[in-house]
Amino acid sequence: MEPGRATHTPPPFPSEWCGLWKDPGGRVMFIHRLGERQLEVSFAAGIQSAFFPLISGPFHSTRRLPGVYQLDNYGTPVLQIEIGEPYSGPRYDIHFLYGEGDRLRTAESWDLASGVIARPKLALGWRAENEDNSETSWAYPLSNYWKAEEEEMRFKAFHGW
Predict the structure, then answer these.
(1) What pTM did the predictor assign?
(2) Cβ distance 117 to 97 under 8 Å?
């Protein structure tokens, strides 16, 4: 890359960030790597709970949803997960942050995974009917996820990974 020239692709998704993540309410997110930036992401109500159903769109549940790690409109790396029709929404976006004292910054691949916070945001897409989409009710309330490596084996065994 030329000096002074910005890149339009993020670094590969860190392998340390793959695996099980859990929010304070017990909901879990499981990230599985397919390629450098291609991922599958699954969401369930708990370690030994079923995946959330999705009534319409190309996916039947929140199991193995396609995700891509790319830069958002501000140049910040984000994991974008399709939960509806591709390119029209809704979409679940995850930014990875790292805490430094009372300040947060974008997480870097060298940060300890135990200090990384996965912060979700729902992107409803361009279609007006997505505003009251019952397919996204499983995502609320939006809350941060933290790595839960100690429970990953139970999750994998229950769900056959």
Answers:
(1) 0.88
(2) yes
Helix, strand, or coil here: 136? helix
d(Cα 54, Cα 63) in Å, to the nearest integer? 10
Amino acid at 55: I
Q: Residue 109: which of 36, 12, 35 has the closest Cα? A: 12
For residue 14, the one-letter residue type is P
Contacts of 83 (CB under 8 A, 6+ apart): 54, 57, 59, 62, 65, 90, 91, 92, 135, 136, 139
Distances (CA, A) of 132 to 78, 141, 159: 24, 15, 30
- Token pair of 24 as six digits: 């304070």
Mean pLDDT of each 10-residue bin along the chain, 161 residues long: 57 95 97 96 96 87 95 92 84 92 90 95 65 74 95 94 82
Q: How many CB atoms lie within 10 A of CB 35?
A: 10
State the Cα–Cα distance between residues 92 and 80, nearest whole angstrom. Answer: 6
